[in-house]
Amino acid sequence: MKKNEYINAVEKLNLYAKHYYVLDDPITTDEVYDRLYHEVLDYEEAHPEDILASSPTQRVGDSVSEGFVKEKHLSKMWSLEDVFDREGLEKWLTKTYKLDKNITFYCEPKYDGASLNLIYEDGKLIKGITRGDGSVGELITQNVKTIHSVPLEIEHKELIEIRGEVVIFKDEFERINEERLKKGEQLFANPRNAAAGSLRQLDSTITASRNLVFLPYGVGVNALPQKLLHKKMEYIYSLGFRKPPKRAVCKDRDEIESIYQQMMHDRESYAMMLDGMVIKVDEIAAQIDMGYTVKVPRYAVAYKFPAVEKITTVKDIVLQVGRTGAVTPVAVVEPTNIDGVVVERATLHNFDEIERKDIRLGDKVIILRSGDVIPKIIKVLTHERDGSEQIFTKPTHCPVCKSELLQEEVLIKCQNLECEARVVNSIIYFASKPCLNIDGLGVKIVEQLFNVGLVKSVVDLFDLTLEKLLTLEGFKEKKAQNLLNSIEASKGKEYWRFINALGIEHIGEVASKTLAERFGFAFIDATKEEIISCDGIGEEMAESVLEFVRVNRETILKLQELLKPQEPIKREEAKENPFKGKTVVLTGTMSESRGVIKEMLESLGAKVSSSVSKKTDFLIYGEDAGSKYDKAISLGIKCLTESVMKEILQ
Ligand code: IVH
Predict the structure, then answer these.
(1) Quick check: helix, strand or coil at residue 394?
(2) Are residues 189 and 247 in the same domain?
(3) Which residue minimizes the CA distance to atom 2 of ligand 1?
(4) What is the DSSP letter of 434?
């Protein structure tokens, strides 16, 4: 780096920092910021005479914003040194072991939220203060009191500062953003910004509506007797604070690395966003001996996870036509490696989203990849535009069959039932896992069968023979026979799969199960009133079923004859009981297998679902209940142990 590049880099960092800290509206990713920050640090180490007073390295923390009363922390809130890989960790460990050989480590997640200091006096929460610059923060006690995971009183009467991170769970973040989208408000870029923004609301009712969660990670001023950090933390948890989703005391580097790998592997399944693992020396006496540099404690380090957000460029917007005819836009982006996966496409949901987010061809954007969901664009970097970006115009004709498209509310649809894309996608859907689960009938083969004219609709699948398949390129006897076997195996399956496979608009797996259970084979003769009377089926869905049956009755009967699905045994109506008609989620280890308990609850008329949501009525938990329990508590859902459930039923 040359001097003028250094000056530019400092300016850039300050711009990024202002957007991040002051405006709660980041214009870059943490990764880009961190990389530049470290380059600046390196330059400054080599040229101390050039250090600018405005460099972000020259201040610890950041400015306190106007609007709240400023308040001093009783003891300083420190920040952490970051390491990004095994090598960085090794260096830190070597340095730390040099200070003290006989140490162990306490490892816990690095939460991605906003830090908070809680002061308790005489067992009462008297102050909640944001981190601010580490010495002085903002007094936000009223807002903090709205957070359910912050106890207002604790069984510890001496003065204590409890530090932790305020986070927003990932699904709550989605909910808030959906609501903001509906209201036309600017979206939060990530859960961290949503947490920080929610915490600093002048109106506490807004804070209260955001379901914030407090996760403690340490103490400031305290008179606790424990000599080991993990013992102190166990004591803090016992006062009514949340435990981390994972924590461990590690003896050496191998144990640290192994916990890090586990945490990184499981990170998607945690309710909150993590951006790394924090490693702290467990022995308090050693911590005190090691002390601090100007900025960070020597006894702790943040071992960061690879970023899930990256900056890339929108090269093109292509159109996909689904089995229902809906045309969806997909962004083609400059290939970008995110955590080991090369991302080339990002979903755009619908055309309104392109307009709302003002995504233009050539735009620089931040994309987020989490788990196996398709990456999405979370932010357009409008300040990076140079005027060459082009506005995308909505299509008027189907990109596949060229017929005219119809706008139906937010959707744009191809109306042509014979459109190749619609036919091919409906066959792929028919064969997919939650439908008839036909192994080996993926996109490529369906396209091939369609293109040579062997399969023009799902019915044709059952006319395929070895001879016909052997005429296809790439098909040898074994592959052909396997495909025929898989098609044969799709016969005699559960009836709900059959209904689901028909691909009736608005009718997914759950509705298919409901229809199959309620009507059996007679579902094609059900009236609108009968269909609407089913739990969870509304008018639009019922009309969709009726219209589908009206147009396709012959095909349904023909397929039914070919596939011979099993007619479900209709359940007797359950007697009145507290679980009848309720949605129940099971978690943790129970005295019997979960399948047995699920069966029993279903026979009582309950719906057993696998994930906790607002619609859940009860959570029944066994030993070692994890994130589902946490989530249920945060949503205020009734949680029962297995034995309480059994008592209720007696
Ligand atoms: S300990 C003495 N532990 O990360 C060390 N910090 O980058 C002080 N953070 O300002 C911090 N999870 O807001 C610690 N398990 C954890 C954390 C954590 C998240 C945040 C915290 C801090 C920032 C430093």
Answers:
(1) coil
(2) yes
(3) 78
(4) T
Residue 242 lies in a domain: yes
Place of tokens 């970008």: 336
For residue 394, indicate whether it is catalytic: no
DSSP class per residue in 142-177: HHHTT-TTS-SB-S--S-EEEEEEEE--HHHHHHHH
Angstrom distances, CA of residue 301 to CA of 98, 232, 304: 15, 19, 9
| pLDDT at 65 (0 to 100) | 39
**In this structure, which residue's CA is closest to atom 10 in ligand 1?**
79
Is the CB–ligand 1 distance for residue 300 below 6 Å? yes
165 lines ligand 1 (CB under 6 A): yes
One domain for residues 216 and 229: yes
Find, among 123, 173, 170, 116, the residue nearest to 146 by Cα. 116
Regions of the chain short of the pLDDT cut 50: 22, 59-65
Which residues constitute the domain of residue 599? Answer: 583-649
Is the same domain home to 166 and 192? yes
* DSSP strand pairing (341-347 vs 309-321): unpaired
Domain count, the chain: 6
pLDDT at residue 211 in the model: 87
Amino acid 371: pLDDT: 61
User: How many alpha carbons lie under 13 Å from residue 308 in its C-beta half-sphere?
Assistant: 21
Six-digit token string for 401? 């069959």
Q: Is 487 in the pocket of ligand 1 (CB under 6 A)?
A: no
The predicted-structure confidence for 573-612, as pLDDT tens digits, reads as follows 678 889 988 999 999 888 888 888 888 898 888 888 888 8
Structure tokens, 183 = 């209201």
Please return the burial class of 545, using the count of CB atoms within 10 Å of its CB with bins 0-12, 13-18 and 19+. Answer: buried
Does 505 share its domain with 469? no
Alpha carbon distance 563, 498 (integer Å): 8
From the CA of 110, how far away is ligand 1's center (Å)? 6
Cα separation, 200 vs 203, whole angstroms? 9
Last residue of a domain, one of 15, 37, 59: 59
Q: Cβ(278) to ligand 1 under 6 A?
A: yes
Query: pLDDT digits over 343-360, tens only?
Result: 999 989 889 889 988 999
Give the active site residue among 98, 110, 364, 582. Answer: 110
Residue 331 to residues 355, 400, 474: CA-CA distances in angstroms? 13, 18, 32
Within this chain, do residues 156 and 196 fall inside the same structural domain, yes or no? yes
Closest to 150 in 3D by CA, of 197, 213, 205: 213
> Where would I find the beta strands (DSSP E) of 339-386?
341-347, 364-368, 376-380
232 CA to centre of ligand 1 in angstroms: 16
Amino acid identity at 168: I
Distance 275 CA to ligand 1 centre (A): 11
Query: CATH number, domain at 12?
Result: 1.10.287.610
pLDDT, residue 568, reads: 85
Atom 13 of ligand 1, nearest CA residue: 115
